[in-house]
Amino acid sequence: MPVIILVADGARPDSLAEAMDRGDLPALARLRAEGGAHTVVTSWPSVTGMAYTPFLMGRFPGPVGLPGLRWFDRSRRISGLFGHARSYVGSEMRQVDTDLDAGAPTMFELTQRKLGALNVIQRGLPFRDRIGYSAGFALRAGWTHFRGNVRGWLAIDRDIGSTLARRIRKDNPEFVFAALTGIDKTSHSEGHNSQVVRDAMKIVDATAAEIRHDAERAGTWEETHLWIVSDHGHSPVTQHDDIAAHFRATGFRTLAHPWTFGTAHDIAVMVSGNAMAHLYVDLRNRTRSFWPALSPRWREPLDEVMRRPSVDLAVIPQGPGSAEVRSAHHGSAVVSRHNGTFSYRPETGDPLGLGELSDVCACAALEATADTDYPDSVVQIAHLAASARSGDVILSAARLWDLREQYEPIPHVSSHGALHREHMLVPLVTNHPVVRPPRRTVDVMPSALAALGKPIPPGLDGRSFL
Ligand SMILES: [Zn+2]
Question: How far is the CA of 155 from the centre of ligand 1 (A)?
Fold first, then answer.
């Protein structure tokens, strides 16, 4: 009974549903009719790679070691040559596997015959079972990216999709995790509602159709689980506020990619997504000292950046189990986590717009936030703020804004990474009906193990929907 997970990277639940309703995606519409289509919450930061840890590890990304697409390493484990900073954009993406908590198993470590395509997290996946991992592929993707060749991404998706279907036919794997990135790439350059994004969705549909056709011919379709998911949404960007450039202009020695050389920096600005960022100060400290203990000289510059129009929410970790959430217009509140329960206490306002929560389970915390602007915000903030690798201040961008402008190779009109609903809600289409409504993408991994009849390891953040 194979489990095949196809990631339609960057697809929003509403745009995917509209495309199915329009008749653009007949294979997915058929899966929806026979199984189901659900809207679930991804993890924060809502960005590719980090947001794959729920699918492959059943865990939120911060606590397993991936706080963002870029992060600063206070512990100095990462080479000083790169300013003790990590960016998974480019060749360092290969460091993801070793940056991840070795004690948290991946799906690839828990299964026998497996296959992956563009899956970022590869631990436990043999080289021969990685599609799109060759140097030739990297060159082609790099060329497509830097030339801003938008249609080139569709050709890459078609290649990956047909290679994937062929390998599934030939190798008969029990677990497959494959990403098609065309929807995300084309959304960035042309906008999520553009025609080219619709075309990218059709490639996901064609891939699902081919996998189904092959399984039907082999007589294995009834026992096959085929799930179409996404890792984050998208929303339009009209203005870029380069936070790193802002600090440089204010006279601070600023550590930010791609210029991470040299020493004696004052602040590290690690943009992830690009609609979120980690800010690190007091860089000489090897561990976090948390907001109340930061050197007083940072109060004013950080207060100022949190009031910028580009910033919607600022999260300020206050200690291992609590964080202040601040909004320039809606005041501040405290999110805390204690013995597996979550609380939210408004102080000068209600920035998350949900009233008050006292010691509720993760499930009730999601329910309380589901219809707000920030679905699952309390649980997501508590997890990311708890990561030892997170910044002293974590920014979530306002609508129409992102936080990086310089050194972006091609202009982008759409972005993701933030906490608001256009970025956090994702689709999950299944070919068989589920037993319990799926809530979050962290539910996917335990469900896959349940479908495969394998034991579910302890300590996961999700629950099986089968
Ligand atoms: Zn993207």
Answer: 18
